[in-house]
Automatic annotation (TrEMBL):
Name under which the protein is recorded: thermospermine synthase
PROSITE patterns attached to this UniProt entry: PABS_2
Enzyme Commission no: 2.5.1.79
Active site feature: 178 (proton acceptor)
Gene Ontology biological process terms in this record: polyamine biosynthetic process
Keywords in alphabetical order: Polyamine biosynthesis, Transferase
Record-annotated PABS domain positions: 25-262
Reaction(s) catalysed by this chain's protein: S-adenosyl 3-(methylsulfanyl)propylamine + spermidine = thermospermine + S-methyl-5'-thioadenosine + H(+)
Superkingdom classification of source: Eukaryota
InterPro entries the UniProt entry points to: PABS, SAM-dependent_MTases_sf, Spermi_synthase, Spermidine_synt_N, Spermidine_synt_N_sf
Species per Swiss-Prot/TrEMBL record: Acorus gramineus (Dwarf sweet flag)
Similarity comment: Belongs to the spermidine/spermine synthase family.
CDD domains hit by this protein: AdoMet_MTases
Length: 333
């Protein structure tokens, strides 16, 4: 995980001992790239450890509440996770005419399942996460997702998502990739590849089915890390592909998602809002029709890069965001 350090009032790093009378704070520090770091002041460390597959930490921060960190990368925070999870879930489910069966790749913290289960059309959700320890401590600590884990429509599977999709005969209306970022040595970069999308995932979609995945940073300077490549890869597999993005404060960047289907996306702003009213229990904090219309209008620089992107994500030509996984036993999520 990222480093935990203490700093004095003047901002200089100090040791935990011999700090006579001066106030100090504990900080979580994460490298975004070689020359850029992000720091969060901590109230306390709730959990740290290493599972069979990845390093895990759950931190209580002053600015963003509880923060989940996996393999040194911040995954979500209590204060602004709703932006990420509403953006991941609702566009795909609302563009589908009647989503009943949903498969989540990853999603161990439970927030994606929580948002899916707000949809009244949904009859069954399969959440497949390889890391039982992540799921366990998220169930214990992330109280806002407690109800989702006990919803009778949810079936939790602790397994490799690739193997689960390869072995199951069931098809789904929507498949959601709530995976960890593709980092070198991490557990899931193979689930961003063309071969996986084409041979394993797409055959598990019903007619008219939709796939959506988180696709990494999507800012003006960061979108070429993996976002443009994931977009281009999905264009080689599906007929209709829609990239979109939103600013997430705790990530200190714009984040990207890509939605794909062999059926066209024809739902307009008014119809999205109509479906929100009739299908979703409770009020969204971030997502509505106008928001999606805005989020799917990318900046000139990003549009140009996506249009010119030629790389396809494969096992041999994988792209990674900055960082490195722990390289435990599995390389799939």
């Amino acid at each position: 995980m990222g480093d935990l350090k203490s700093f004095g009032e003047n901002g200089n790093e100090v040791s935990d001992v011999g700090f006579e009378g001066r106030r100090k704070s504990c900080w979580y520090e994460e490298e975004l790239d070689q020359h850029l770091k992000l720091c969060f002041a901590l109230n306390r460390i709730l959990h740290t450890g290493a599972s069979q597959y990845q390093d895990i930490a759950l931190l209580d921060t002053k600015a963003f509440g509880k923060v989940l960190v996996i393999d040194g990368k911040l995954q979500s925070t209590e204060i602004d996770e709703f932006i990420y999870h509403e953006s991941l879930v609702h566009p795909a489910l609302l563009h589908h005419h009647n989503p009943k069966t949903i498969f989540i790749m990853g999603g161990g913290e439970g927030s994606t399942a929580r948002e899916i289960l707000r949809h009244t059309t949904v009859e069954k959700v399969v959440m497949c996460d390889i890391d039982e320890e992540v799921v366990g401590f998220c169930k214990s600590y992330l109280l806002m997702n407690k109800a989702a884990f006990f919803d009778p429509r949810l079936r939790l599977v602790i397994s490799d998502a690739r193997a689960e999709l390869e072995n199951c005969v069931e098809k789904f209306d929507v498949i959601i990739g709530d995976l960890a970022d593709p980092i070198e040595g991490g557990p899931c970069y193979q689930l961003y590849t063309k071969s996986f999308y084409e041979s394993t995932l797409k055959p598990r979609l019903n007619e008219g089915g939709i796939f959506v995945t988180q696709a990494g940073p999507a800012g003006v300077f960061s979108h070429t890390e993996v976002f443009s490549c994931v977009y281009n890869t999905l264009k080689h597999v599906f007929k209709y592909v829609v990239p979109y993005s939103a600013h997430i404060p705790s990530y200190a960047d714009v984040w990207g998602w890509v939605m794909a289907s062999d059926s066209p996306f024809t739902v307009d702003v008014a119809e999205l809002d109509e479906r929100i009213t009739h299908r979703i229990v409770g009020e969204n904090r971030y997502f509505d029709g106008e928001t999606f219309a805005s989020d799917s209008k990318l900046s000139k620089a990003v549009r140009k890069s996506l249009a010119e992107e030629t790389q396809v994500y494969t096992e041999g030509t994988a792209k990674f965001i900055y960082g490195h996984g722990t390289g435990h036993k599995s390389h799939q999520a």
